[in-house]
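Possible race condition, two jobs.
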Amino acid sequence: MTVPPRRIAAAAQGESWESVLWIGRDLLAGSRERLVSRSGRFVLVSSAGSRAPAGVVRQALGEAVLAEIEIDDREEAKTLSTVSRIADASLAAGVRRDDAVVAVGGGVVCDVAGFAAAILLRGIAWNAVPTTTGAMADAAIGGKTGVDHPAGKNLIGAFHPPATVVIDPAAAATLPDRDYRAGLVEAFKAAWIADAELASRVEGNIERLLARDEDALLEAVAGAAAIKAAIVKALKSSLDDATEQLKKAPADPSAKVSDLWVSFIEHSGEHYGQLVVYFRLNGIVPPASRTGGN
């Protein structure tokens, strides 16, 4: 039996925008019915690392693809020069204000393509099809787009939420194991902060997650997306409302962090150093690894 995709709406109170997230299996091939463009035309932006899922999306869109641009998905390519490449190709193809961008790739592709959409013709719609576990868990909720500058990261950008985010676990099928595992931290972070029950389920699914079980990945990603959507909504409400959104947070978050940390490290000790850096950047002192990873 086919399980229908989960739909999550993310919108801040008092704002005119809404991002709709579709999370489920086999969504890439049918992406045209969910991607948003008033004209029905799309500028497709992808990377070498996302060629396989981008090819499925391209086939689904068919003649609706106005232009196709492949960009570098390394952090070094997150520049105004890359944005200019997208703008040049789009304008040469005759992009209009009722057209839309589709970003198929990881965080860099989504950040850069989303920013290009924000400034093209003073703003056109865009859609995200994340292909990394980190980008799936982040889901572009809140609409932070932008590029780096020699003075620092993400110093040039705009808040431009995607109209639609399509998350299909098959899009991460070719992701290297190290990148796949590293991106899971984004989903874990949301669970640790705001949902003790989800954190417990994620902890119990560590082995399945590392084995790339699609159901386990969907549960973790959908849970993280729902939490972020609730937080975005709460940002425009009162402090009391925000507290209600986060009332499921564990009484002692550090204890849950420790439990999940140990479970993850025991299955993937090679990431200890990477996770130490991640936790310290987020103001959390990580517990010592029982495996002696470094």
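Job #2 (started ~2 s after job #1):
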Amino acid sequence: MTNRIPFNTHFRKLQNSAGDNSRSNQPEPNTKPSEPQQALTLQNLKDKLDDFMKLEPEKQKNILGELLYPKILGVAGPTYAPKITGMLVDFDVLAIQDILELLEDQSTLNERIQEAQKVIMQAGESE
């Protein structure tokens, strides 16, 4: 992956979407300090889905990839997990709603992982 931006940067923006991105994390005068940042979970993403949908597609892919990668790693292992994650967050292949469904349904995700592994292996044979 090239120029991968750390997920936490995007998630903080998602958590604080009402704020200006150029501001520092310091509280403004006469305002309460913000609550501690929540860890990235599917539920947090669903709770902030409207804000998430306003992000640039590349940021959306990074966030979805951060959620998918550990699940894919557990099934496909470290050799295939990065490639399969990239394949599954390709918005030309799957819509955001489809990716969210994969995050919720491990058996469907496993099917997609197996399909992706076959594609990778076939591509390797043709080289």
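Residues 57-88 form the longest helix (32 residues).
Logs attached separately.
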